[in-house]
From TrEMBL:
Transmembrane segments: none annotated. InterPro entries: Anti-sigma-K/W_factor, RskA_C. GO terms for molecular function: sigma factor antagonist activity. This is Anti-sigma factor. The lineage of its organism: Bacteria, Pseudomonadati, Pseudomonadota, Gammaproteobacteria, Lysobacterales. One of its GO terms (cellular component) is plasma membrane. It comes from Tahibacter soli.
């Protein structure tokens, strides 16, 4: 009897079709050059943009289908211990990691990425040292609702941003991401999407500012003049960068 994979041709290494490319773009699975080309195409090609929006709609319900489960206080220390990380310094933090919505969203995003890797990739490349796991920083509204989930890689100068769909309505304005160093003024990192997962490339001169204790914030700004010299619009979400 044939196995489920007997009829799959794994010898084809041709570029992915538009539908697969759109799915990988939405989930943030493309390499940097591929991602930039695909993102630029989505801005100018209406047919391709519809495919990206279609995948966005397919995966967005995962964020609300995961049943909320309150993690125990020992869960995060056990994960750190199993990974061989040192225990974090004891200090007071905002109760974001205790938020059920945060764990619901983080679990859904992780499940979506894992499932997409299985379904869309012929093979999974083992992670390298530069792809080590990092904690997720939550950019939340004043009422504690998560708006973006962010992973910071200061060494590579990358900020991976995953929006929680439907939590922000920029209207005619755009969402602009800022880094606020401890005791310093906000510095724009550029525009971020309120609909699609993507990566923000950070200039080398700013990478040292992506340190634990600094704050990431998103404001609503005019479309013209990005990156702006200083924020003028309201802050819609913010969160402190966490220690690894």
């Amino acid at each position: 009897m044939n196995s489920p994979t007997d009829d799959i041709d794994t010898s084809d290494r041709s570029p992915p079709g538009d539908d697969l490319l759109a799915a990988e773009l939405m989930l943030g699975l493309l390499e940097p050059d591929e991602r930039r080309r695909a993102a630029a195409r989505a801005e100018t090609d209406p047919a391709f943009a519809r495919l990206v929006d279609g995948w966005d709609q397919r995966f967005a319900p995962w964020l609300v289908r995961v049943e909320p489960v309150a993690p125990s206080a020992a869960l995060w220390p056990r994960i750190r211990r199993d990974l061989g990380w040192e225990a974090p310094p004891q200090r007071a933090r905002a109760p974001l990691w205790g938020s059920l919505l945060l764990w619901r969203c983080a679990t859904a995003v992780a499940a979506g990425v894992a499932l997409a890797v299985v379904l869309l990739r012929p093979a999974v490349v083992p992670p390298t040292e530069t792809a080590a796991a990092r904690p997720v920083t939550t950019l939340a509204h004043d009422d504690g609702r998560a708006a973006w989930l962010v992973t910071v890689d200061a060494t590579q100068g990358k900020v991976f941003v995953v929006p929680v769909p439907g939590t922000v309505s920029p209207g005619e304005r755009i969402c602009e991401l800022w880094i606020i160093p401890s005791g310093g003024a906000p510095i724009s990192l550029g525009a971020v999407s309120d609909r699609k997962a993507h990566t923000v490339d950070i200039a080398e001169a700013l990478r040292a500012r992506l340190a634990a204790g600094a704050v990431l914030a998103v404001t609503l700004e005019d479309r013209q003049g990005v990156p702006h010299a200083a924020p003028a619009g309201p802050i819609v979400a913010k969160g402190e960068i966490l220690d690894i």
